[in-house]
């Protein structure tokens, strides 16, 4: 199965609208006509509209970093799927470990968000991954299984293929400690097997599983060459056009 690789930049709480526009321009210039790799940028909410204008007409896609599961209502400070769609966002990161750990997001909440995103034609990038303590206690696969199963509860086979899973070991996020290719492929292969059990072989072979956690131009080629690693969710290295574009190039494979 030939899955198109996907490189997504998670800008987190960085970049004002003006700074985001400048970065998005460089990315569009460097990768805006590429069709061999899917490129997604996820600026903060406040820069979505301005970045949407920059990526319009290019191959670069727009994603958000979070959303509420209700379409509208009394939810102070929240943003909904239809609001994101109105900015022409196509993707949304859900259940990032920072959302889970710093803002108390549960598997159940992530699942409600996944269902709402799909209902509104947004592709969820669902993050799963173990903490250092969980890895040391040999709980990695169990944690990843629970998070993946719960996030996908109630998702139909037709819609499941559009879901993107991001395996992000929490201990590797923003720490410079990248998982070894063996550690990453082991978990990616496990997730693929799990998706096959949940959604069937045909669907699971179409689903992309990204790696995230200190992915950099230096370590990306080896990670991206693994059978079940279909791209990357990039934090730190996505904040600068040069490193992000190098990652996009790495995803395209050897020239
Ligand atoms: P990092 O972040 O690349 O800075 O480790 C990845 C992420 O949190 O998505």
In short:
The chain is an alpha/beta fold.
Describe the SSE topology:
Blueprint lengths: L4 E6 L6 H15 L5 E6 L5 H8 L5 E4 L16 H6 L4 E4 L2 H7 L3 H13 L3 E6 L3 H5 L3 H12 L5 H4 L3 E4 L13 H19 L1 H6 L1 E5 L7 H5 L6 E4 L6 H12 L3
Parallel strand pairs: 1-2, 1-8, 2-3, 3-4, 4-5, 5-6, 6-7, 7-8
Helix pairs in contact: 1-2, 1-12, 5-7, 7-9
The structure holds 2-phosphoglycolic acid.
Task: Write structural notes for this entry.
The protein contains twelve helices and eight strands. It is of the alpha/beta class and 255 residues long. It has one domain: TIM Barrel (Alpha-Beta Barrel). The longest helix is centred in the last third of the chain and has 19 residues, at 181-199. Bound molecules: 2-phosphoglycolic acid. The site of 2-phosphoglycolic acid has 13 residues, from strand 8.
So how many helices? 12
Q: Termini distance? A: 20 Å
- CATH fold-level topology: TIM Barrel
Please state how the strands of the largest beta sheet are arranged side by side: 1-2-3-4-5-6-7-8
Question: At the first level of CATH, what is the class?
Answer: Alpha Beta
What is the helix fraction of residues, given as a range?
40-55%
Examine the secondary-structure arrangement and name the CATH architecture: Alpha-Beta Barrel
Largest sheet: 8 strands, parallel, barrel
For the structure shown, list the relevant keywords.
255 residues, alpha/beta, TIM Barrel, eight-stranded parallel β-barrel, 12 helices, globular, binds 2-phosphoglycolic acid
């Amino acid at each position: 199965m030939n899955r198109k690789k996907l490189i997504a930049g998670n800008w987190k709480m960085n970049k004002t609208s003006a700074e985001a526009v400048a970065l998005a321009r460089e990315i569009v210039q460097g990768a805006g006509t590429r069709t061999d790799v899917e490129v997604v940028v996820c600026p903060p909410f406040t820069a979505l509209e301005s970045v949407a204008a920059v990526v319009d007409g290019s191959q670069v896609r727009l994603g958000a970093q979070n959303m509420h599961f209700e379409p509208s209502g009394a939810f102070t400070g929240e943003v909904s799927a239809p609001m994101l769609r109105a900015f022409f966002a196509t993707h949304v990161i859900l259940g990032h470990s920072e959302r889970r750990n710093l803002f108390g997001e549960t598997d159940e909440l992530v699942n409600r968000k996944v269902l709402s995103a799909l209902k509104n034609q947004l592709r969820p990038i669902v993050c799963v991954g173990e903490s250092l303590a969980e890895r040391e206690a040999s709980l990695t696969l169990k944690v990843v299984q629970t998070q993946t199963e719960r996030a996908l509860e109630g998702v139909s086979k037709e819609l499941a293929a559009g879901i993107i899973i991001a395996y992000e070991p929490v201990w590797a996020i923003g720490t410079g400690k990248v998982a070894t290719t063996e550690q990453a492929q082991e978990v990616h292969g496990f997730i693929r097997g799990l998706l096959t059990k949940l959604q069937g072989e045909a669907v699971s072979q179409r689903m992309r599983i990204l790696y995230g956690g200190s992915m950099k131009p230096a370590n990306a080629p080896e990670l991206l060459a693994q059978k079940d690693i279909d791209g990357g969710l990039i934090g730190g290295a996505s904040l600068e056009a040069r490193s992000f574009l190098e990652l996009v190039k790495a995803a395209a494979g050897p020239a």
